[in-house]
Design a protein that fits this description.
The chain has 4 domains: 36 residues; 105 residues, Glutaredoxin; 282 residues, 3-Layer(aba) Sandwich (Rossmann fold); 37 residues. The protein is built from 13 helices and 24 strands. A 7-stranded mixed beta sheet has the order 8-7-9-10-24-21-19, with helices on both faces. Strands 2-1-5-6 form a 4-stranded mixed beta sheet, with helices on one face.
Length: 545
């Protein structure tokens, strides 16, 4: 055998050995890597990773939580991504729960019992348009999730948007595993916005986490003791002293209050303004916040539609202020992850430091830009007539603030208002007997508290259905405020993660004009300069020749 043949055989043997070694290494790596899982999420909001807050909730569960996903296997093409995203999220939840969450996928279309189970849970049957055999067909399907813990259950009937699914599942798990669900109440009466009509959408969102009720302030009765948080959604009529007292005593016993209230009422049909005297402003002033009876305008604003006798038009409306990232307090976990909020016809707030004690903390949550101004007496709401003042007359206004700690009552034991009169049948129809303050009520009177919490927003309109439909971030802001008062702040970070508004930064007129003229003249100047340089070089080259 020649030397060349020996070298060829040796090379073949080495090549075969290398292939075998690489194959063995690949198999070993695959075996070990199947036991490990890691990935990198480079999206701005970490859209494809669960938050640290979710991980904390999952790792501290008291026992096993069962999650059943009622998903049809053969979904139409436009829902394939939704199906994949849901499965990825549930897989990551199950992994981070370390055995405390068991996820089961069920297809109701494949089993009649499972279909009946899904319907019994309130998961609706959906109809999808699909193409089969070159024909459009309508098929039934399911896209619901149910969370079980012992006898408790929470249902997500329909997964519409996976961007908020992490919050929905975390909220459901949190609710079913809690021993006591916080009870919150919406004040009812005196033309306040109602939970079943004006605020139905945010009301339904709160029901995912809380036991939500209504409290009729006109009854004159004190707040039930099991309520922890009261929402005052825009009162438009004067409260009686007894009704003020009922609200005041709720705070004095350590309750939390969210006040959504303007200082002026707007009639959208004719754009007329009426300054409000409701008694809410008196309570707030006693607790340390002045609600101004003005309307705040800002150059950072949203578009609004208007109609004249002949035409309908849209225009930037300074009275529909847009609070952007810089307007939220970066030191407050309630709002520091938010990016936008639209307030319609809002009033400004001021903290009355003389009413605060050294045990009261005040922190502003949201404010307008420095290019804002206010209308106090001469109100002009017509967008074609609104004139902005000079720059030196503009400033930033606080429109949302929070106080916590010590508060003092507006009343004393000797000035407790009498209960509302009640009819006496024995004295004839229509006659009433003057009720008296009982000794028991006097004994239970609280003149102060060191555990109160009050959030005031100078706008009651931002969470109504129309505004929530148009400005999605408004609902997030509202929920964050309620969570902060109802002691469930851990969910704020998860909910705020889904907010993706990226408003354009507001710049001065000078900067706008500079950018405009650079766009108009910049390209021409660049090409002209390039041509002159080329001409000079060619001329120089000819001279050298």
């Amino acid at each position: 055998m020649s030397l060349l043949q020996s070298k060829r055989q040796l090379n073949k043997a080495n090549t075969l050995t290398a292939i075998i070694i690489v194959t063995i290494i690949a198999l070993v790596v695959n075996i070990f890597s199947s036991q490990l899982f890691t990935r990198f999420d480079v999206t701005a909001n970490k859209d494809y990773s669960i938050s640290d807050t979710s991980k904390d909730i999952l790792r501290n569960l008291p026992d096993v939580v069962n999650v059943k996903a009622y998903f049809t296997s053969n979904l139409p093409g436009y829902l394939v991504n939704t199906n994949r995203d849901v499965r990825d999220l549930l897989s990551e939840i199950e992994t981070n729960a370390r055995g405390n969450v068991i996820v089961t996928y069920l297809d109701p279309n494949q089993d009649e019992k499972i279909e009946q189970e899904a319907r019994g849970l309130g998961i609706p049957t959906l109809q999808f348009n699909v193409v089969a055999k070159d024909q459009y067909q309508v098929t039934n399907g399911y896209l619901g999730i149910a969370v079980f813990f012992g006898d408790n259950k929470e249902i997500i009937p329909l997964v519409r948007d996976t961007s908020s699914l992490e919050y929905d599942i975390a909220a459901a798990i949190s609710k079913v595993t809690r021993q006591d669900v916080p009870k919150i109440a919406f004040l009812k009466g005196h033309k306040a916005f109602t939970r079943d009509a004006d605020l139905s959408q945010v009301g339904q969102l709160l029901e995912k986490q809380y036991d939500v009720r209504d409290w009729d302030v006109t009854s004159g009765d004190l707040m039930p003791e099991d309520i922890t948080t009261l929402i005052i959604p825009g009162v438009r009529e004067q409260l009686t002293k007894r009704e003020q007292y009922a609200i005041d005593q709720f705070l004095m016993r350590g309750g939390s209050i969210l006040v959504l209230q303007e200082g002026a009422d707007i009639n959208p049909s004719d754009l007329s303004v009426n300054k409000l005297n409701t008694g809410i402003d008196e309570l707030l002033a006693q607790w340390g916040v002045r609600l101004n009876k003005n309307l705040v305008l800002d150059v950072s604003s949203e578009m609004a539609g208007f109609r004249t006798d002949t035409v309908q038009f849209f225009a930037p409306y300074p009275l529909w202020m847009k609070i952007t990232k810089g307007g939220f307090n970066p030191e407050s976990g309630i709002v520091n992850k938010l990016e936008s909020l639209v307030m319609t016809w809002a009033s400004s707030l001021e903290v009355l430091k003389e009413k605060l004690t050294d045990k009261t903390q005040a922190i502003d949550l949201a404010r307008t830009t420095a290019q804002s101004w206010a209308q106090d007496d001469s109100f002009e709401l017509n967008p074609q007539r609104i004139e902005a003042p000079k720059k030196e007359d503009r400033k930033s206004f606080v429109v949302a603030t929070m106080l916590s700690g010590e508060f003092r009552s507006m009343f004393s034991k000797d000035s407790i208002p009498e209960p509302h009169p009640s009819p006496l049948l024995s004295k004839g129809e229509g006659k009433t007997e003057k009720a008296k303050v009982s000794d028991e009520e006097k004994n239970e009177f609280s003149g102060s508290t060191d555990k109160g919490r009050v959030i005031v927003v100078g706008d009651a309109d931002f969470p109504v259905n129309d505004n929530v439909n148009r400005f999605k971030a408004n609902a997030v802001f509202f929920q964050n405020l309620v969570d902060a008062l109802a002691s469930d702040e851990k969910l704020i970070a998860i909910r705020s993660k889904a907010v993706t508004d990226r408003p354009i930064k507001e710049v001065s007129d000078r900067v706008k004009n500079t950018i405009k003229w650079l766009n108009i003249l910049g390209v021409s100047v660049l090409f002209t300069g390039y041509g002159l340089i080329r001409f000079a070089r060619r001329k120089k080259a000819r001279v050298e020749i």
